[in-house]
Amino acid sequence: MNGTTTLSIPNLRFQPTDWIESLWNGLLRLFAIIPLCVLVFILGKIFSNGAETITWEFLSKTPVQGMTEGGIFPCIFGTISITLLMILMALPLGVGAAVYLVEYAGQGFWVRMIRAAVNNLAGVPSIIFGLFGVGFFILFVGRNIDHVLRTGLLFGQPCMLWAAATLAVLVLPVIIVSTEEALNAVPQSHRAASQALGATKWQTIVHVVLPQARGGILTGAILAISRGAGETAPILFTGCAYYLPRLPVTKLFGVIPMINPLDQFMELSYHIFIMATQSMDAEKTLPIQYGTTLVLIALTFLLNLAAILFRMHFRKKLGQVSLQ
Amino acid sequence: MRTMSVLDMFEFKTDEETGTLPRKEARPKTPLSQIETHEGQPIKIMTRNLSVFYGINQALINVTMDIPQKAVTALIGPSGCGKSTFLRSLNRMNDSILGARTDGKVLIDGINIYAPGINVVALRRLAGMVFQKSNPFPKSIFDNVAYGPRLHGIQNASVLEELVEEALKKAALWEEVKDRLGRSALELSGGQQQRVCIARALAVNPEIVLMDEPASALDPISTAKIEELIHELKKNYTIVIVTHNMQQAARVSDFTGYFYLGSLVEFGTTKKIFTTPDKKETEDYITGRFG
Lengths: 324, 291
Prior knowledge:
The complex is a heterodimer of chains A (324) and B (291).
Chain A: H1 18-50, H2 56-60, E1 63-64, E2 69-70, H3 73-104, H4 109-122, H5 126-149, H6 160-184, H7 188-196, H8 201-229, H9 233-236, E3 249-252, E4 256-259, H10 268-277, H11 286-319
Antiparallel strand pairs in A: 1-2, 3-4
Chain B: H1 32-35, E1 37-38, E2 41-54, E3 57-68, E4 72-76, H2 83-89, E5 100-108, E6 111-112, H3 120-126, E7 127-130, H4 141-151, H5 157-170, H6 174-177, H7 190-202, E8 208-212, H8 220-233, E9 238-242, H9 246-252, E10 255-260, E11 263-269, H10 270-275, H11 280-286
Parallel strand pairs in B: 4-9, 4-10, 7-8, 8-9
Antiparallel strand pairs in B: 1-2, 2-3, 2-5, 5-6, 10-11
């Protein structure tokens, strides 16, 4: 042992690391600002170019003149319908799967496999989902339904139902993962208390666990909507149309108007895609493209906002409960 | 609510040949609780060679113990000695722990609760539990207490109100909360929350109340209230309480069991355990020379 094992007395005036500190500080701040700049640039460009296109006419009319003029109402209608249909399919399925994984499954080999599959599903490119939708939902499920029900070619072709189902598969991992987190955040002691009062597992889940996890589950729904509403690739082959002269609606029992899930539909993101790549005169449709983009962003934002308000409402309810 | 009978713990299966319920003669004629006595008290819970394993660890080793009816039995011992495991095995709360395995018997009124065909849900109504950390649901005080009765099918609002009032009175909380039953239980103080949990356990009309260090997270005043309450409750309930606090065990209990390393070292009246214990280990622990 020699004397070098002790530290020297620190010199309070000498600060050799000062400039390195500020260099890193500045660099990291720059990195953090870059995403903000990109977002501001995108939104700014869309707003400045698209804002003047947005009129009541644009929002409420159908496209005319080979889609170089007119409005985009069918696309808005299609986007809202398919998002609702998607979340209706994905939410029960995803929440159910998460409840199983957290509350029932335990820690086996197959559970680990399922978790791995869910995580991998989240990383699959969206075009693959589109092809999967064609292969599985339309050609396999749809055609077989037609075969069994003898409905000719009704289910076995691209339509909103299969497009929504494809999107639902796409957003499933988002919902499962966020629901799992929400369920895990419910204190174990509440489950124990419920069971000690003679509640079955299912009663505990329904009356204690799910009410507390509602906020987190809705967060999952929000993320799923954000992910699914703007997707183009999965619906490319599974149901969206280049141009449709009518809205995908039908009358249930001949009276109640409803979305027709077996019809094709127009959709905002797909509309932007074809405007930019397939249009006869892409230059001429530029204002429509900007307008449509703005509407798509606004719509996604609104759907998100609705879900966030929902969540706040539930959180409030959880905090100040009232006498039933 | 229909009063709970121990026989409800059996899901009676119809006899395959006759298609009838098991004949009355098959049930124990005289409840064992009236036969066996311990220091003059009828026995409510008997354990016979009860062992609990968590994976390969044995947390409880061959515990044989008679817990008297309508009295307070305290379980003491250093951390990890198995007293909580023992308590949890009395209403089969260990069932939900992954890898937990139980050997031996626990007889409540002479019925082995680990026998096949026992309805665990009914068992837990018979033997309620209060946990170390108060764990009211994030619901109103009313909904917390009404949770159990609602689970078991009581919908009628006036009946529920009656049950909630009764349970809160038993838990000595009614006067403090009667004007704010609709407020969240989480707004209450720690001691009040714990009494909500006690009221919640009492609302399903149990015969046994298992308490796992119910006052360990409370201030002295709240602790005193809980202890007073326990004293009051033993008139109607069989109470088993796990505690780290030796003075508390001495104050509230009639019988005391000392656990060490998963075994029951000594069991007897609290007076005897605290004054003239048979075993030297018990004396060492009681007097603070070990622990």
